Amino acid sequence: MATAAAAPVWSVDPRTGKQREQVAVEATAAEVDQAVREAHTARGALAGREVRAALLRRAADLLDEAGDAVIEAADAETALGPGRLTGELGRTTYQLRAFADTVDEGAFLDVRIDRPDPALTPPRPDLRRYKIPLGPVAVYSASNFPLAFSVPGGDTASALAAGCPVVVKAHPDHPATSELCAALLRRAAVDVGLPAGVVGLVHGFQAGLDLVRHPLICAAGFTGSVRGGRALYDAAAARPQPIPFHGELGSLNPVVITEAAAEERAEQIGAGLAGAMTLGTGQFCVKPGLVLAPEGEGGDRLLTALTAAVSDTEAGVLLDHRMRAAFIDGVRSRAELPDVQAPVTPGAGGAHTVGAGFLAVPAARLATEGPHDLLLEECFGPVTVVARYADETEIGAVLARLPGNLSATLQLSDAESAGSDRAGRGARLLAEVTPLAGRVVVNGWPTGVAVAPAQHHGGPYPATTSTSTSVGGTAIERWLRPVAYQDTPPALLPPELHDDNPLGLPRRLDGRPEGG
Fold first, then answer.
1. Of the listed 38, 248, 394, 416, which one is catalytic?
2. pTM above the 0.70 mark?
3. Are the CB atoms for 8 and 64 separated by under 8 Å?
4. For the chain, which terminus, N or C, has the lower number of CB atoms within 10 Å?
5. In this predicted structure, what is the pLDDT of residue 420?
């Protein structure tokens, strides 16, 4: 019986919808198995922290050297523009180097040594604990960040830093960029003496399922839709041996604008909101998708400013025509709901573009279950929903109905920010939105997720499927597990747990920082 030909993988220009070139073919089950087994075999080669740090720095250097080609490829497949992609490439190489620094420091190993104490009740044995890599990791690339959340992005960088080889499932919106970046990472591995198999790449929907189900894959990282992420999450949980699945799925990113803030600076807030919701043609995972704004004069001024700023925004190209169609249909179905107005109508901007806009609705419509629940779901693209509230009771009623989010934003007045308002409104709202999100922004906008040690890019479900972050130094913790050695002879202990600390690691000794 003849074997069916492998499906081709095409690079498509989102500005025209036309195929550019065939980049690859979708991976068969055997090819997925080969990539995973190569990654599994490479585990031992990644054991040393020095070689991991060297790999990350070499990868960053090669990406910088090939920057023009990488940006050209990514722009051709995503239409994000050279300016945006230049910044994203800088972010990508920065986080690779930042994880190399994390590896050098060694604090992520969380070394803890408790010496034996027979006088305690019960007596304490000798206990020595640190963290070890899980094993090969599956990474699922994001559509909207072809570099920073894709093949060379934060999931890959943090997994390699932890000592875990990676097999990446390429996103179909930028396969040529994925192939180019994977080749650079594999070259970086060879340059520092590692097998190229520490980074693998596969294409295809079925390949993604085969990857998460492979018995040698030990964890997975995903950035994408609720539907796709939940399917993979369920597959990871249904395995004979379930694995951690760290998925970023979807987020509404609510904004609460107080009446006092609107009265104080309505025009500034309106312009800022317009910039945040249209940035990257509304394709940021932290785009403000729901805004609670007051009724009355201050809120009216805010909407006037928002209308003017959004009206001046040029039509843009979404990442692919499927997303464009979903955006147009999603906006239409929302705009048809009772009491929903469109001061600036979002939708088709041309044959291949979309126009930015926003919808307005009384907040009371969202306070109880009904057809307007559609407005509480993310609509990917340059649109937001402004819900006008009559009082703080309506704010609380709407917030109580929201699912988990990556971010929540408060726009407060000077008095509310200083905590000097008589009712303590600022502190009360802060406490109210904190359970909803992994990052709370005050008097700013959530777009722009800084790569920093204190960053948290995650949140309650469905924003993410775990409590971990995918951005910042602590993202490495997703790919590690702790192990404790009890009464183990010194000659058998790993060097990280030796009494004389030959590696110079930060440690806790008998519950206190060593040397502190």
1. 248
2. yes
3. no
4. N
5. 81
